[in-house]
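Ligand: iron/sulfur cluster. Inputs:
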Amino acid sequence: MAESPVVGTQLNLLDHFPEWLKKDERPGFEGYIVPAEHLLEFAHALRDRFGYDLLSSVTGVDYLPEGKMEVVYHALQTTGGPVLNFKVQVDRQNPVVPSVVSIWPGADFQEREAWDLLGIRFEGHPDLRRILMWEGFAGHPLRKDWKEPYFEEEAKPYKSRWPEGHVQRAEDRHPLHDNVDYPAGFDPDSWSPETADDVLYKTYQSIMEGSDSELHTDRMIVNLGPQHPSTHGVFRMVVVLDGETVVDVKPVFGYLHRNHEKIGERCTWLQIMPFTDRLDYISSMSNNFGYALAVERLMGIKPPERAEYIRVMMAELTRIVSHLISIGFLLNDLGAYFTPSLYALEERELILDIFEAVSGSRMMCNYFRFGGVARDLPEGVLDKVKELVFERLPRKIDEFDRYLTRNEIVRVRTEGVGVLTAEQAIALSATGPILRASGVPYDIRRADPYSIYDRFDFDVVVRYHGDVYDRYLVRLEEIRQSIRILQQVVRDIPEGPVQTGKPQWQVRVPAGESYGRVEGPKGELGYYIVSNGKPNPWRYHVRAPSFVNLTSLAQMARGGKVADIVVILGSIDIVLGEVDR
Amino acid sequence: MANEDLQIPGYEIPPEMQGQVAVTTLDRIYNWGRKNSLWPMMFGLACCAIEMIATAASRFDFARFGMEVMRPSPRQADVMIVSGTVTKKMVPQIVRLYNQMPEPKYVVAMGACASGGGPFKEGYNVVSGIDKFIPVDVYIPGCPPTPQALINGLMMLQKKVERESLRTARWYSREPAPAIPVPVLGPDLMDPRRYDEIRAYTLSKRNQQTTEEQTEA
Ligand code: SF4
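Predicted complex:
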């Protein structure tokens, strides 16, 4: 595929496209600016000549004062190295950008998201519909001049609350006493309520006709979710079936869209931290981690040694929790009703005890701070962790292994099911265990090390069949690797402060942009932030791994049986808080 | 425990029969049976659902309260635990599920989000509490409520069940329960019960705009 890829850091793309490629020279910004008309040419070259085979993130930024919309791309080489950032700037009045789905199919959902929330039109996108909000919703909410019904002020802290607080319910300020707003002159009776689903079903029109089976069966659309016992939350799949065979699947998102980014852009830098907990609510500590890294990069600070160790400790414990839950519930989906998940939850409780001891909360830890962590480990916690990682967890993981790995039913139901080849996984921007189960040994902790991961001995787990079984094996083995890292952490952790400088509630973040990414339990968790020097971010975007990983759902499910869809979804391991944000 | 709950005072039971025989009222025995076998609907919305699962799991184990029979179908459930953020996109489904539950039915709003919008209240896709649409019996504070808090809330619900009476129970009256109108997704969420208010609001908004334009011109 690649002609001999040039390695990231030495690469100067300006030499290759001198006529039109520009460096982004705004202070604090990096990467390149590509003219919209050359985007496809540039993208082709990146992928085929320079080895940037995986497009990690696509998002938009609304630069209202300059009258511009910007689409920001982050691409990476699966052989390792830092991400490459490039942008396309277009006029805000008519933002049209060519779609890169033909080059990186993994851009599909992310481009739809940018269309939905920012109103950027991607020309050539095969299915540009709204994704998080419903078809028919008025406006593109992430635009800077779009105001929510409960709008109070551009940025927090609101004057009504600070420095003197007044109790004032948002409902009382709004004429309708509710969180709703409608265009002027709108008549609710004139509304035909079917719009959203009509638009969706219309995209199926061509495949609904014509079945290739000898029996001439009718094709049929089946909705799974949003209330379904096995969709892991409020997730909906619209499946086209030919008999029992899956012809196509389209996920429908947004049932848990909580406007994380809009709220984030109103919050101060530190106020966002507790919101990140609620993204992937099973692994709040690693969400904190990614966000702290992104802001610290911009501020140019580093946490002290002890804090680094604590951070790694928390992130790896989180990975264990998340993988355990994922394995337990995968077995649930296979019909092993609840027993394996109860085993998993038992271990989870022990780790949650540690989280509660350090942060005060079992799930919503809000523990990281810029330049450290909120407080030191309380007495006894380290001993508890030691007990866990040297004694209990290794034994328990072996137990899982013994019960499940060679279980006949597990193997028959998962081997060869939901296959994703390495090329497909890369093209569809899959990351995390999905990518590694397809034979690509890409782990950010190794490929682009952050924090102090370069100090630890651990293996990047990789399997080669790309099926549900391999994803299970990767997760199981990754738990063992995490335990290995934890053993080194508790051995080496030094004494000392856990925070650089004084704890502050209001930090100064210099103008610029930053992309902080960590290897979360579900894949690459990235935070793209833009600061204009104010106490609030101008843009705050989360590149959520389980959202992007869902791009490959259709590929995995097509041609399989309808009963396997549930298992395949379980093997992707999604958390809706992160998918919909 | 059953005996203290059930026995009504004033009836002498011979000592050898105590523990086997109780004199009670129909209301008491009926409610006692109901409150100890409330079946929740297996239905999770957001982060709070994970704590609900933890409550069902081994350490907290709400099977002790007769609640372990979680039913994915609303038609077999007694309690809907609204465990998480209610979004505008999801609320039509929740109302529909509620309408499908047979009576007697109860609703527990678990956590800040379900009770009043929670940390995401100001979001444009968030409903400020499920009680804007369906009646709630117990509110549980917390973000997320700990399993202990959830259990406490469920025990409150049991107390509520205990105090109901067959004679006044709504579900034994002749009329079926009126269904709650399902909200509609328009340019924003629309509650069919409030169409008149919405019309008045959009009309006044348009009038305001025209006056503004006229003054400008
Ligand atoms: S109350 Fe808190 S924990 Fe519960 S759903 Fe809302 S944000 Fe999540």
